Write the structure tokens for this entry.
Amino acid sequence: MSSWRAKSFRALRPSATNRAYRNNYNGGDFRFSRKSPFYQTPNDMKKIILFATTMACMTACQNPPKPPAIDMANFDLSIAPNADFYEYATGGWQKNNPLKPEYARYGSFDILRDNNEKRINELFSGMTQQKAEPGSVKQKISDLYKMGLDSVRLNAEGAAPIKAAVDGILAIGDRSQLTAAVARLHSSIANPFFGVGVQSDLMNSDINALYASQPDLIMGDRDYYLDPENESIRTAYKEYLGKIFRLSGVPEADIDKAVAGVLSIETKLAEKNWSSVELRNIPAMYNPTKKADFEKAYDAIDWAEYYKTMGIGDFEQMIYSKKPVFAPAEVDTSIRPGWFFHPEQAPHSLEHLQNVYLNSVGRNACLNLNIPPMPNGRFHPDDVMRLHEFGSWIQNTFSEDKNLMRGAEVNVTALSETQRLYDIHFGEKKKITYAELCEDISQGQRVSSFAFVKDLGHDLVQRFYDDTTIGHKKICKLDTETDALKFLITGARDVPLLKSIRIFGE
């Protein structure tokens, strides 16, 4: 109102008007003589006030208040940004939005999802209380919603609605049937073993491209399957799987075997899945490959059957994720959660240290293990004990006495200039734990991809381990039992030169 009035006065600049303005100002109110061009009757003033109010409201409607680009309530200004920037930038948000126990993460998009679910539920609930026109969309949604709430009927039906689907999965007997089953699941509810979908080409948003990706895991993050410290979560997951199998009609005598099978398969998939850090490597996710080359590289799938079931027509290339051919030169970590000694902390478990070793020394890197001394300058007895356990595990697991290659028969075949086949026969069935591969890096690091294959009998083979580089040393966790192995070098930058192959087991 005041800005509107002041603007009007500035627009009228005759000297007489200015004098009238100056002469009739009294105690903060504007007063005008009847001779003044600004004089108005009370009714006129009401009209002016009403007009001004209307204009102010219109202006407010046209320019609603905008939320701040940066909400300072999300910050924790008590933390210096150079000390802990994450806490500085998100401390307020974390305090005002504590992580709920049912979530592994919680952010603004999770809030939107929760709010939308609540609104949709309220919308559907309202529909059930209304008389919808028969055959209308509203009536169909209402009926479907009521069916989902009919717990009496659902409990009475039990596993009957899914019995045919479960029986179909249990009856799978060959690769073609498995491929068709996987394709049906991909086109409906899940992405077992791998995922295929269409999205914008990362390098050309004007076109869509076909992508292949890693599979979904029921527990979500791969660390739930691999990290020794998540054993309690795996135990709860096995109980959950047992309950699901019982509700699905699986005989009680078969449940333990079914649970073990699921966990074994998902753990092997988790070992191949990318970590959350690796998933940030966008360039590594973009590997356009000709259709024929892609199918040759991943020949365990009957692709013709898969495309047919999925309804995928002809295409030229597939884009997939490929781990970078890289290994860190040095890995620095601590035997405890903290870098310095804290009496309330305990050393990491032996299983955790084993995993660190396999992913550092076993991946062509040096391991620097920090042992924090106590204030008196000595190592804590618990740390010393864990070091002894760790050292004993390394010596026993990778001792020459357990090298199965010493009595094995090995035949080497050059498949091409850059491909080699090592056909290894042990003479009898052996329980194999690890394979240690070493290149002669004095001639350069050459191998870019390799695989392990084992015979299943009846002219059947299983390709059960794939990886990329070898370098100075690569340790592969095989965990299999067989009397023969095939080691394949499937790609190299030059003629592959191996320094040694050692297979460890019992």
Q: What stands out?
A: The first strand starts at residue 25 and ends at 26.
